Fold this protein.
Amino acid sequence: MKNLHNILLEVYNEVYKHTKPKLDFKKAYEKGEVTETDWFMEYFMIEEEQQKIMNEVMKKHKLKKFEKTIIENSYWLGCSPTSNEARWKRERNKTDSKTTV
């Protein structure tokens, strides 16, 4: 069986390269900067684009159906960026308010 954890991290890394704002997920993960509760809500990308990137990574690794299911479930239940633009804007405003106080 393939190392699904590493494939999942690759998906996150590829997705976060294209979020608003962009994030070097691999670097942030290795430095432990992605441990704050709901940190991922500060990043936005529409769901269809996230799915497209995930599909490309899974295709590259030639995953079996059950492996794809594991990756997809782990991704959507994990730290995927929000696909709700209104919520993203609210979270960004909260963050901006904290830094200006």
Summary: The chain has one domain: 4-96. Residues 4-96 form one domain. The CA atoms of residues 55 and 87 lie 25 Å apart.
